[in-house]
Amino acid sequence: MIVGRDHRKGEFDISDSLLRVERTAAGPRALRRGFLALPDVVQQGRLIVESQVLQWGLAEETAEDAVLIASELLTNAVRATPHQPIALRMALAGDGLRVEVWDSSPERPRVSTPDLSMPEEAPADDAPDPGGWGMRIVASLAREHGVRTEFEGKSVWAVLKAERR
Which of 73, 86, 102, 89 is nearest to 21 (CA)? Predict the structure, then answer.
């Protein structure tokens, strides 16, 4: 089953909203989880990633890095496609842990420069988060990372070294 838009029908298959852990024909252990792009899915994704990485017997440091990467990628997907289907996927193969998030926006994430200036006044409680760190964090934690066009959208991915406990 395909997470996201079904390439045969061009529609999101809601059955992919269930968490699935599987061993694929290619060998790696894999996880897929579909969501609607709402802010609370970032926390849900963090918990899913941490739990699964530890169940796979990987080191706590690997789990922490994977959680942070997933958090950044999910946050970007939620901002790019609010209230639309998104998907979190992970795969463990050899010494690599792949974390990726699919969304329906064709726009690639951009590395931006965060605003580090000190405000002269306290920002309003409802002021938007300036952001700017996400893809820099991903790049600093991952062995490799990238973006690929997929199912009328994109998948943003990162591969970490999978350290065992």
Answer: 89
